[in-house]
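ligand=manganese (II) ion
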Amino acid sequence: MQLPDLQSTRVPAPAPYLRIATEEAFAPPGMLDIYRRILERGDADPGFRGLMGFYMSSPSERAQHIMRCLTDLDQLRLQHMDACGIDMQVLALTSPGVQVMDKATAVSFAREANDHLADAIRRHPTRFAGMLAVAPHDPQAAAKEIERGVTQLGIHAVVINSHTQGEYLSDPKFWDIFAAAEAHDAPIYLHPNSLPPGMYQPFFEAGLDGAIYGFGVETGLHALRIITAGVFDRFPRLRMVLGHMGEALPYWAYRLDYMHRATVKSQRYASMQPIRRQPSEYLREHFYITNSGVAWAPAIRFAQDFMGSDRVLYAMDYPYQHAVDEVIALDDMPMSADDQLRFFQTNAQAVFKMPPR
Ligand code: 1DF
Ligand code: MN
């Protein structure tokens, strides 16, 4: 089994599908100003300092490139998309978005960011779609922003960057957010965040806290907490999206089901009560997954087998994984034309409710 060749500099050929990338990051300059103030205060959690503190100050080529790309929603980004053969990006406020801000700032900046995003989509309606930023630490305000975003801005999905200051959406105090997402049929993309203080050190000391591993572990944990807390029994029409190959959860499915059954039966934890279905059934029926960061056909094929090919979507993770070679590798996947059309185009159009173009 071969890993894709990451050295080639070919250009993607025209394809019989639109390439729609579904986990693409941006940062309004005003958000970076707020981040700078948080970082200067000196009391930011180590995960945030290690992540955005790094990108905002490192002279490395990668960091400088990422910062330049994040703030642009016009020429530079469209140029990069064209060079990679990307027809459309589904944009999300870069992690951690507003979730690291104090509650009042987060609520007001989420609105500002969503207006900024809606403006970019209006300027380039055939190139951009998006997800709404919300402040989970004010669940009522987040619910209202989902309503405003869907009904007034025409943005039909929500992004939440995993934990909010160490707290998880499995806590019922956040469930107004799920109620609003369900009522407006807006899928929630559960995107990674830097690790919360209680998880950070053992990952950080080995250099494994970031996108290499820590992000996926923490976001997968979050999705599992939502499943085992019974969120989908309470909100039967709620849909979610996970990146990075479902943060590896499809690969875990058998063991999750077995051990969940055994744990519930032995009444080992007050926090793990019976739920209606097996964890893998919620995964398959309530989640979509994207391949962000994993341009590797065998993993994608396994995900399609497990989830169904109508639930696996393409994502690049621009600008953090800005790689034209990966687009070419994915064009070349041994896959039926129907499944490849679903993967690159039609699943994204359905999940993010894109207008016909
Ligand atoms: C990184 C990766 C940073 C992802 C991200 O947001 C991010 C990274 C600050 O490589 O440091 O969204 N990612 O989704 O893999
Ligand atoms: Mn990402």
